[in-house]
């Protein structure tokens, strides 16, 4: 088997604990990619070619985000200050890595200005 990140289940065992026998080489559609590990910093986004020639945007560094204030039904683009808490790993907090479900501190000035005028 060739090395690389793949999304197939040939390397796993069956539910009956038997082995999967590889019947062919790895294919392009089974490709997996390394994690982006998006950090806080000046915006840096790389294009990634996908199936069909389409492009995805891989965020490597970000400093702004779209956040909503649920009880007031308002959303604003605000600046990210830091990662405060992450339930899965403290190293992601220390390195200011943005992942799903991480708690971030934001600059609330746009929300504050909106709240004063309403």
Description of the molecule:
- With 118 residues, this protein is mainly β.
- Helices cover 12% and strands 35% of the residues.
- The protein contains 2 helices and 7 strands, in the order βββββαββα.
- The chain has helices spanning 90-94, 109-117; strands at residues 38-40, 44-49, 55-62, 64-69, 74-85, 97-98, 103-106.
- It has a 4-stranded mixed beta sheet. It has a 3-stranded antiparallel beta sheet with strand order 4-5-7.
- Strand 4 (64-69) and strand 5 (74-85) form a beta hairpin.
- It starts with 37 loop residues before the first strand and ends with a helix.
Task: Provide the descriptors you would attach to this structure in a database record.
118 residues; mainly beta; four-stranded mixed β-sheet; three-stranded antiparallel β-sheet; 7 strands
Share of helical residues? 10-25%
Question: Please, how many helices?
Answer: 2
- How far is the first residue's CA from the last residue's CA? 62 Å
Work out the number of β strands.
7
Coarse morphology:
elongated
Helix and strand pattern: EEEEEHEEH
Specify the biggest β-sheet: 4 strands, mixed
| pLDDT < 50 runs, ≥5 residues | none
Which structural class do the helices and strands define? mainly beta
Gyration radius from CA atoms, angstroms: 21 Å
Strand line-up in the sheet with most strands: 2-3-1-6
Rounded mean pLDDT score? 94
């Amino acid at each position: 088997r060739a090395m690389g990140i793949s999304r197939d289940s040939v390397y796993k065992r069956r539910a009956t604990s038997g082995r999967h026998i590889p019947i062919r080489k790895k294919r392009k559609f089974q490709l997996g990619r390394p994690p982006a590990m998006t950090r806080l910093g000046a915006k840096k986004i790389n294009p990634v070619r996908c199936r069909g020639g389409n492009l995805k945007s891989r965020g490597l560094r970000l400093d702004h985000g779209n956040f909503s204030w649920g009880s007031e039904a308002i959303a604003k683009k605000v600046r990210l200050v830091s990662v405060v808490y992450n339930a899965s790993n403290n190293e992601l907090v220390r390195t200011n890595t943005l992942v799903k479900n991480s708690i971030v501190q934001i600059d609330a000035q746009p929300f504050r200005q909106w709240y004063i005028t309403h």
